[in-house]
Design goal:
- This protein is α/β, with parallel strands linked by helices.
- It has a single domain, classed as Rossmann fold.
- It is built from six helices and six strands; from the N terminus they run βααβββαβαβαα.
- A six-stranded mixed beta sheet has the order 3-4-2-1-5-6.
- Helix 4 links the parallel strand 5 and strand 6.
- The longest helix is centred in the first third of the chain and has 17 residues.
- About 5% of the residues have low confidence.
């Protein structure tokens, strides 16, 4: 089965997708926002993706491996950086020609080519999955002139109350 190895923070910066929380929890919020965005775009293909984040100086308690909406997420806790873990995974891969490495880093692109894996920049991969998501009707996939769905029973009244549209005009 094809595998996509993603340099997580590299993709985060290429994507421009950042979480709303700032400060101590900001990085976690941004990782989650990125993973949600990618999961929305990939749909049922998310299980073929492994995103690796740098974590050499991560706080205690951060898990080494998690699954986020089907996407496998590994933190490179025992490595100097995510690149080192991705290179190791690539070296251990029995079918490297079925692997795609996603990163703008020349080091990872060269490692992928050495193993005859596909190397794709973060920008290019993101553009590809966004295009595929639109063609499948995923995130941002509705045609601009498409008719919105009919409101559920009571939904119009709910929103009228919410925005104060049922209230009499004020003098």
């Amino acid at each position: 089965m094809p595998l996509t190895l993603v340099d997580g923070y590299n993709l985060l910066h290429a994507s421009g997708v950042f979480g709303e929380v700032r400060g101590a929890r900001g990085l976690e919020s941004s990782r989650t926002a990125l993973l949600d965005h990618v999961a929305d775009l990939l749909g049922d293909r998310a299980g073929r993706v492994l995103v690796v984040f740098d974590a050499a100086r991560a706080p205690d308690g951060l898990p080494g491996r998690v699954t986020h909406r089907g996407i496998r997420v590994w933190f490179a806790r025992e490595y100097p950086d995510a690149d080192s873990l991705i290179e190791e995974l690539l070296e251990e891969e029995r079918a490297p020609s079925e692997v795609t490495v996603v990163s703008n880093d020349r080091r990872l692109q060269a490692a992928a080519r050495r193993r005859r894996a596909k190397a794709v920049s973060s920008d290019e991969w993101l553009a590809d999955i966004r295009r595929a998501g639109r063609s499948r009707g995923g995130e941002g996939g509705a045609a601009p002139d498409a008719k919105p769905p009919e409101p559920a029973p009571g939904e119009i009244e709910h929103w009228k109350r919410h925005f104060g549209l049922d209230d009499p005009p004020r003098p």
